[in-house]
Amino acid sequence: MARTVVRVEGFKELEAALEELPKATAKNCLRRALQTAALPIVMAAKIFAPFRTGRLRRSIGVSKIKFTAGAAGKRAFAEAMAGGATRQEAGEAAAAANAGADDSGITSAVIVIGPGRSRYAGMQEFGTVKHRPHAYMRPAWDGHSAEALELIKLELKTEIEKAAARLARKAARDLAKSA
């Protein structure tokens, strides 16, 4: 399937608030916000998907979220590949570069919305020589991507506020126990 990359900017305040949280808490906040924001696209894709056995519709969902350390690893990977390294060697170079980079916070997160291991999902979306395309993912993305971006803002703000409140309650509880 074709992959669309969306770069979102203007989240400086939310990013700063995420950086104030512990790293694991920040990742969990971002994970929950992205999964919630993806729901309108997933539901629309399930509605648009052709139905014969229902297997394709059931397979549509959100994949696990991958957090990346940023551009240092990407540059190291590209340089290693250009230098004639194997994919494994380039991956090791990228991991080393990311480990050496300032890993104070989350720089990006990647989710994948689409069918799981359905072998005919691409054939349905794009068609074949003998079968006309029956697009279901592209219309879902086109119709709900703006809504998903707004949901990311709202959900991320809510998740950060909830996490900050939880951390404050925990700090108060720990302070009461130590007193």
Short description:
This protein is mainly α and 179 residues long. The chain has a domain at 68-110. The protein has helices at residues 12-20, 23-48, 55-59, 71-82, 87-100, 121-126, 137-178; strands at residues 60-62, 66-68, 108-110, 113-115.
Q: Supply the helix-strand structural class.
A: mainly alpha
Number of strands: 4
Q: What is the mean predicted local confidence, pLDDT?
A: 81
Main pleated-sheet profile: 2 strands, antiparallel
Taking pLDDT < 50 over at least 5 consecutive residues as the criterion, the unreliable ranges are none
Strand content: 5-15%
Radius of gyration: 20 Å
Describe this structure in words.
With 179 residues, this protein is mainly alpha-helical. It has a domain at 68-110. Helices cover 64% and strands 7% of the residues. The protein is built from seven helices and four strands. It has a two-stranded antiparallel ribbon with strand order 1-4. A two-stranded antiparallel ribbon has the order 2-3.
